[in-house]
Amino acid sequence: MAAFAEGVPCWADVLLSDLAAGRRFYGELFGWTFEQIVTDYGSYTRALLGGKDVAGLVPKPDGRMPTVWNIYFAARDAAATAVRIREAGGRVITPPVWIDEFCVMATAADPGGAVFGIWQAGSHTGFARRGAPGSYGWTEVHTRQPRAVDAFYRAVFGYGMGPMEPSAEGAPAEVVLWTPRGEPPDPRHAIGGRVVMGEEYPAVLPAHFLTYFVVADCDQTLRTVHRLGGRVLKTAEDTPYGRFAVLVDNQGAAFAVIDNSTVG
Q1: Which CATH architecture describes the domain 9-121?
Q2: At what angle do helices 19-30 and 218-227 cross, to 10 degrees?
Q3: At what angle do helices 146-157 and 78-87 cross, to 10 degrees?
Q4: Keywords, A to Z (predicted)?
């Protein structure tokens, strides 16, 4: 499979304390199977759907680290991307490093504090399946600093940006859609977005990326999550893009699901 275009979300993995519990939870929820690989940097569990790569499960090297889903953006040159991140006011947390022959990875934070990954493809180009039930569907950054964050992602990845809905004059849009460099800034070409964190968000909740997985039935997925020991953070809601909900797995990692079969 060809590498993803610059700035396109190309991989997601979850940092967990208990990998066996994670395999049981996501295996039943999404129908994933798993394959463990060992690299020079430790073990890594590939999640597969129909034999195709859809995500990863990573053991926490330190129990103090957050239990969280991480999203990675494609980069032709991870080192050059790290330079742009610093120049645009972001912070490089983990510098680019080769993970065997699989990829070059780096971790960074935008000016609002949301953490994301960079992925320069090697033998592993990223998602081999997406947009279908049980696979990745969407990502968006939730931030309290929309102006700084919009400027940052425009500088780092060259995103085109357009508001999902009109906003008050002079105010940043509540939701902005991102499109890759050179593509029309419209919903059909969008690959992610930015959401303003308003008063409805708990004050202690930091800026973050929310990763969505496609499901065939949103409401049934909520029932399955509850049965597996997870929780519902935001109950199912219909939108022009599908019926979605925000959930937490049985170890505390937040993610969203969306049933886009309800559109149209």
Answers
A1: Roll (3.10)
A2: 150
A3: 150
A4: Hydrolase
